[in-house]
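Hi F.,

I've been meaning to write this up properly since the lab meeting, where we talked about keeping a consistent format for the predictions we share between groups. The idea is simple: the sequence comes first, exactly as it goes in, then the structure tokens exactly as they come out, then a line or two of notes. No screenshots and no reformatting. I'm using this chain as the first example so we have something concrete to point to.
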Amino acid sequence: MGLLRRIRHEAEARLVGPAIAGLNAARRLRRLEAKAPRPPLGPPLRNGVRLRAIVERYYFAGRTADGARPVAWVTSGAPVEVLRPLGYYVVYPENHAAVCGAMRTARDLCEAAERAGHSRDLCSYARTDIGALLAGRTPVGRLPKPDLLVCCTNICQTVAGWYRTLARETGARLVFVDTPFLQGDLLPHHTAYVRRQVETLAAEAERVAGRELRMPDLERSLRSAQDAAFLWGECLATARARPAPWVGIEAFFHMAPIVVLRGLDEAQAYYRDLLGELRERSAAGVAGIEGERVRLVWDNLPIWSELRRLGDLLAARRANLVAATYTHAWSECADLFSAGDPFDAIAATYTSVLLNRDLAHRARGLADLARRYGAHGVLFHSDRSCKPYSLGQHGLRDLLAREHGIPGVVVEADHSDPRSVAWEAAAGRIEAFIEGLG
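Output, unedited:
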């Protein structure tokens, strides 16, 4: 790594980026304080301003990271705790694609990937990411070139082809961590199989970074990830109050630190502050949606391009998404971070994530979420380009209604590509469903 590039990166990441983000945050906070809430929405979260600043600093630091420190691109379910102690700047292509979806730039990037021969039936996160790489543009300014690619198959098998494409286009070293799909409980041979691969990942990450992974540092990274996951779970749990102190759709945005900053103390600090604000609001009776009448659970990824319209539709009917399988997935395995030595804990945690479990597990989780959060029904997003998450949703809906008395509705859309979202049809189904709840 060049000394001058390192100095420049440190200056921009530690001084320039935070200064710019701080100025932007101050302006946003002033606008927030001067702006009246939009009834029936309650006052917006102050930590929403801080969240924007964190995301800005994260992407700003990435602009100068390559050549200054090791860079890894990883899947959302990859064991990043191995990389943190080695000084890696970590890029999450899925998070980047979600940002593109929310900023409505995903369509052009998907089309760039399709022009290069990638099928429109592929995951829109993959097409957005590959399109951004091929087109050389992104709404976040610039993504650093990877030295290492880490692909963990616990979220889907699409990532295997996706990351092979990234390896071919970037020339970066690719490491796979394959997790066996769990039909039932996690067994010792599952943990042993994944542990060996995590050890291989650690060795390769050391080689690329030119540093040795010290066990005390790895243990600290795991504790940080676990603490942040527990805090995130406590933030989500505040929505069990009636009324919920925040709009559930906001959780899709506030989950960003538990993804991109997992294993860093900054994630813990953020969720401590967010939890404090949510508890204050709850104690004061502040509602995310005034006159909250209907409480719903969401299953699958969000429809990033339509979150504003979805939020307005629900708020107008005094309905709130008080829980979501997607947001809760980032806290439900937190206890496993201390299951055995660091490598066993990592193997157990990352093999047990939601999308690596069978439908019976998902059904129990959905029923439990609906019960604990007092939900009246479930909105199932049948996501065109996330087939593993969408598999079996009609059966899950019928099972919940038959065995637990919890009704649900399935709406078809896409998490990132707006061309596959028929908003009027989806909105009509949601409206009819809410009206039917009484």
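Notes:
The mean pLDDT is 96.
The CA atoms of residues 32 and 107 lie 30 Å apart.

If this format works for you, I'll send the rest the same way.

G.
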